[in-house]
Amino acid sequence: TVASGEASSVGGGYQNKALGDYSAIPGGIFNEALGKYSFAAGYRAKAKHTGTFVWSDYTPTTNQFESKYENQFLIRAHNGVGIGTTETKDSVLTISKDTPNDFLIKAVGTGDEHSVFAVNTKGQIGIGTTNITNAKVQIMGGGMSIGTTNSLADLTVQHDTDKDLILYIKK
Question: At 38, phi and psi to the nearest 5?
């Protein structure tokens, strides 16, 4: 176990290396924090770049789980990552929130007001809006394309299969 970067630290574990300046390894085994301001923990986590955070679960492997770019936040958890929940089986990411009518995901871009994607706790999806009403999927500020990337109208459907119908509606 080595902590040779300026103000770097290794809290414990076995064969851990904090070589980047201001890097940290709280514990685990065979971890490496090589970049400045990097963090590596768990089993075979390798933070190779500046500002990276790498957490690796114990999965019996000799492969390192390592950063590829600066300023990454990486997690390897074979039984899933839970945010607001401990129920992660059969999912890479499980997000849960007990607050009704709140957002589970709200991704906002830097473009216009319609550069947003949202999913609320009712399972409704908003694309181009966070003002999701009673619709299951609500799209504002642009078209929707099915079967094509060429949006010719508010709704474009391209039919390239052997099926006879393009749209089927039943009451």
Answer: -100, 165
Structure tokens at 148: 């094509």
Q: Which of 63, 71, 28 is nearest to 47 (CA)?
A: 71
Tell me the mean pLDDT in the region 119-141.
82
Within 8 A by CB and 6+ apart from 42, the residues are 28, 31, 55, 56, 57, 58, 76
- Range scoring the smallest mean pLDDT among 14-28, 89-103, 150-164: 150-164
pLDDT value, residue 157? 81
**Is the four-CA dihedral 78, 81, 85, 86 of positive or negative sign?**
positive
The mean pLDDT value for 129-150 works out to 77
DSSP secondary-structure letter at 161? Answer: S
The more confident residue out of 111 and 94 is: 94
Tell me whether residue 29 is exposed, middle or buried, using C-beta atoms within 10 angstroms of its C-beta: 0 to 12, 13 to 18, 19 or more.
Answer: middle
Could you give the 3-state DSSP secondary structure of residue 7? coil
E strand or H helix at 29 = strand 28-29
Compute the residue count for the chain. 171
Q: Using the 8-state DSSP alphabet, how is residue 110 labeled?
A: S
**What average pLDDT does range 3-10 have in this prediction?**
97
d(CA 86, CA 95): 9
